[in-house]
Amino acid sequence: MIEAYISHLRELLGDIIHDTMNQIRKKQTRTWDELQAESYEVKESIDLEDEDEEAPYNPKNLPLGWDGK
Can you give the pTM of this predicted structure? Predict the structure, then answer.
């Protein structure tokens, strides 16, 4: 019973596990410069997301409605 369940899970997740292992191997072969460039790109994308979420202009500190206005 348990062996059948594990075999079924292996069939379902086999491709995902294989792709993940390949991705890890690929990451391990990157140079320091490539890793730094990737982390810089991720940081830029996070910064761009933060800019979109700025608080609206509210000089009198009045409570905002459901729509943020």
Answer: 0.44
